[in-house]
Amino acid sequence: MQKLDPKTDSRSVDIAAENIEKLKILFPEIFTESGIDFDALKETLGEYIDGREERYSFIWNGKSKARWLAQIPSTGTLRPCPEESVNWDTTQNLFIEGDNLEVLKLLQKSYYKKVKMIYIDPPYNTGKDFIYPDDFRDNIQNYLELTGQVDSEGKRVSSNPETNGRYHTNWLNMIYPRLKLARNLLRDDGVIFISIDDNEMPNLRKTCDELFGEENFIGQFVWQKGSGTQNDNNYVAVSHEYILLYSKVKEYVTLFNLPPSAEMLKTYDLTDEYVAERGKHYLRNLNDFSIGDRPGLHYDIVCPDGSVLLGREHRWRCDADRFKWRKENGRIVFKKDIDGQWNVLYKQYLFETKEEVIKDKNGNILSYGKIADTLLIKVSSTGDGTKEIKSIFEYNCFSYPKPTKLIKHFLQIGTKSDELILDFFSGSCTTAHSILEMNKEDGATRKFIMVQLPEPIYEIVNDEKVAKKEFVEAFKAGYETIAEIGKDRLRRVITKIRDENPGYQGDLGFKVFKLDSTNIKPWDVNFDNLERTLDDYISNIKNDRSENDILYEILLKYGLELTLPIEERIIAGKIVFVIGYGALVICLADDITLETVEGIADLKNELQPEIMRVVFKDTGFKNDVVKTNAVQILKLVGIEDVKSL
Asked: Do the record's keywords include Transferase (predicted)?
């Protein structure tokens, strides 16, 4: 027998709640996230509301703040972590641990219009995913609190359940500013792929239409992620997800078709004297039997025996000028059929000129299995992604990762050989894994930037860490955040590629950076203890920060890439950092003398950069005389941009 629940059964019936539920069944269109739209109810019941503003718009509670949030400069920095990196000194790849909103802000100057392709797999808002609250306070402090899983009052950070009245609003407030900032990083010929499911597909499409422009929508892929037997929906077994594809400026974009599939290659079975240049070919009928009339495709063709195939009876696959070009270049073949009638065929080569190249067209239905083998889609399923994770870690440490074949499919479409790819919801780092493997396979030099929140894979229960159910094995293995899993996956993949391909010279590394507050002390005077406060500000650099920390913050502020070559030189006993072959010179030492300054001036003549900028620590000079003379010495050799921290 079921016991009475004193919390619920002792209460009377909530008549108002029941009536609202009845209204929702009768008139679902009158409900908004904030409650009942009574004007809409009146209109539904036949009462016309005069003067009500009506226009097509995409509005939600907090949109203005979300837009504003993207404009607020970050107060943070990215601190280098060479000890967690692979091939720190040479790699061009980045893994950044932190809140992607703040990281995207910090990357704006250094990577503005430098990214060719973005792929993201953001939270789907299923009620289980971690959702960033729309907190418009200091975002660095907010980030530090989020990663500790408590708010400023010690309260738990929760997910975004469907019972939350602002279910879609919270998700939109999360995604909107991030996509707005991401667009700035795309090149004009850049593209963005975004994975999503049914929960937020309509809202994502509207958001992208607004931020990228409807005219820059390219397509929507449907990916069959499983066999159709999943029971994650009460009414329909959902077996697919979507991937939206938008461009920065559509007219500048070139999408690369897939290489010919195995089935297509079987068709190209003939050779001629041009085989070395054009590859094999097959003969294609010039006669187009499609229904419809296009005047430019109707013209007479004279056969070898002088007979004429009349244009009014035939519709050809190309116009008369194109036919003439093909005939003059030995591409037209005349053959008689068994009835003695002439057929006109043309040679279709495997490798052609740009306008003639034949490859598989990019289809928007992404499947797997036998059909995909024919179409060369072969994008695999979520099960394949899980198998990949197990093969790397020997256990399942991440739920439902995307398979590398899916990401490689988009890399083939959206990139060439040496371009930069960004993923700011990198998760287990499937995107970076895919790039490393593709570079090995095709000899390209694609580079990546991965960004991942160090989201804990555990919860605090009775002051103890308890693994979330999907991360039990990972937690047992010693991982505590999703970012740690992603970094270690890359290390393992790199080791595997290196071991299996000992002669491979590609970039097998990544630099790790972590989001943190600025290295510079804020001016926050304590007048109750003024003497001690002023002593603290003799140096405006935080005590726990290294020269490397400051170095990379300066790079970000100057808009320089974090992977630029950095050379350390010793000049008059002081360490001097030379960045980008002399584009920037930084000396953060103490007790700098004129000998060090003169040595930096000599670098201008030695390296001959177009522009040289020099940065010192404000308190780093031996005395004020050295500080004053330093500026004049550097100006004499043409260094005008001299600054101090």
From this structure: yes
For residue 407 the two structure tokens come to 């990401």
> How far apart are the C-alpha atoms of 371 and 378, rounded to whole Å?
9
Alpha carbon distance 408, 438 (integer Å) = 7
pLDDT in tens, 307-363: 999 888 888 988 899 899 999 989 999 999 988 899 999 998 877 643 443 444 566
Strand-pairing partners, residue 76, are 517
Per-residue b/e over 265-279, b at no fewer than 16 CB within 10 Å?
eebbeeeeebeeebe
- Provide the whole-model pTM: 0.78
What's the Cα-to-Cα distance from 412 to each of 15, 115, 360, 401, 408, rounded to whole Å? 59, 16, 12, 20, 6
Confidence (pLDDT) at 179: 96
Q: 177 and 324: one domain?
A: no
The alpha carbon of residue 265 and the mean position of all alpha carbons in its chain are separated, in whole angstroms, by 33
The 10s digit of each residue's pLDDT in 164-202 is 555 788 899 999 999 999 999 999 999 999 999 998 999
Q: Yes or no: say if 579 and 585 are a contact pair by the CB < 8 Å rule.
A: yes
The last residue of a domain, from among 295, 318, 349: 349
Q: pLDDT, tens digit, for every residue of 455-488?
A: 999 999 999 999 998 899 999 999 999 999 999 9
Which of these three, 515, 541, 573, is where a domain ends? 515
Q: Is 142 a member of any domain?
A: yes
Co-location of 145 and 219 in the same domain: yes
- Helix then strand count (H, E) for the chain reads 20, 24
Q: Share the mean pLDDT of the chain.
A: 83
Q: Is the same domain home to 291 and 337?
A: yes
Overall size of the chain counted in residues: 645
Q: Are 82 and 532 spatial neighbours (Cβ–Cβ below 8 Å)?
A: no
Q: Which residue has the higher pLDDT, 162 or 570?
A: 570
Residue 608 φ then ψ, to 5°? 50, 50
Q: Which residues of 497-520 are buried (b: 16+ CB within 10 A; e: fewer)?
A: beeeeeeeeebbbbbbbbbbbbbe
Residues 6+ apart with CB under 8 A from 283: 270, 333, 345, 346, 347, 348
Contacts of 576 (CB under 8 A, 6+ apart): 568, 569, 570, 585, 586, 587, 596, 599, 600, 603
Q: Which residues form the domain of 337?
A: 262-349
Number of structural domains (the chain) is: 4
Going by C-alpha positions, the residue among 150, 175, 100, 160 that lies closest to residue 130 is: 160
3-state SS string for 552-604: HHHHHHHCCCCCCCEEEEEECCEEEEEEHHHCEEEECCCCECHHHHHHHHHHH
Q: Give the C-alpha separation, 407 to 403, whole Å.
A: 7
